């Protein structure tokens, strides 16, 4: 257990914690908010990835870039556990869209300096199949055309892969898929069409994402291809992942969210990341469980998304950290039984933290956009219908709850003028809508707004604020000032400090 720290002491240590893994990767993050646009406009260099060996490792099979398909052919001809050394140059896989490399258990692919696996805008996938313990390192992987919601490296989510020190860039779909116990270290995932990384669906556990750079992903603006949107874009997205350590990454200039966990994820540790200049929310934790979000630095996130809400006269409190129908649940095993948000430094983002729960979104509800899924404490969607859902325990267990969220020892600073904001960009929120659908819903009226605001153990305390902060409570129409937020019925932010016009 860590000894408790004051708000001022904790946020002062955050930058030291977040910069060290980035220096190892070789990234050059901006010095601060004033320099951010100038320093990062070029989307990061990704130029300091460690080079691969200039000579083949002992016993390695040499892959010749001059021979089309040599990588596939030698993989097929070699036994499991073979090391392949890709010589300098562009390695191509053939002219069919399904030409791809299918590793065997324990295979290792290591690139010499200048080794590129190039899909030439023809092949869909680079590395596929269910082999385990595969290593991919020191390669550039580019030019592959994976369809939406599919990926290029580890397309089939093989288990126990080690993917490190690669540049995965200018691919369609996701640059990389996650598999069980996959370790991804010191990679650069840049300008991929949909995601840098996609983790899905139900058998992905205990992944590690450390020291990577995610920049310019969702380059194809995939969201705009769907009339109603798809909720399927950003730097990375996770679905039904149980156990993820996301630490020491630099996540910047992506179109859409930075880190997005959507639907029945559990046991996430998000720490020591630098997340800045993403168009959408920095951290989006949706219909999921049990997470620690600590010691991250967030700068200038969600400015595009926030302005879009203002432009259409929507007063919903979008924010840098968005907790949506997610909370701590002791019946779902994890390292914590809450969502614990602490030690983070947020500067000039569009607002701070929003805790939201859609009263109409529950198992078997038309408003459940995660079609066919149910909460992890019920699982069987069919149970969540009348008459069973009308009484406990199903009345309680059939809805994802924003509960047991603790927000403490963070620094929240915003200067609206510096981000070109006229209104609604310095808000904290805990709210719901009034339940109305379907007509048999047991959550109609203000049952859920009252619960999330007063009864579900959601607490702010010991934070430090700089700027003209306001607070949205119960529903989007109720905005209160600091005194009302700290006093009366809410009793939030006990022990916190406020500097309206400046300070540290």
Automatic annotation (TrEMBL):
Gene3D superfamilies membership: Single-stranded right-handed beta-helix, Pectin lyase-like
**Record keywords: Signal included?**
yes
Q: Which UniProt keywords apply?
A: Signal
UniProt entry tagged with the keyword Acyltransferase: no
SUPFAM superfamilies in the record: Pectin lyase-like
The Right handed beta helix domain covers which part of the protein? Answer: 234-305
Span of the secretion signal?
1-26
Q: What is this protein called?
A: Right handed beta helix domain-containing protein
Origin species, per record, is Amycolatopsis thermophila
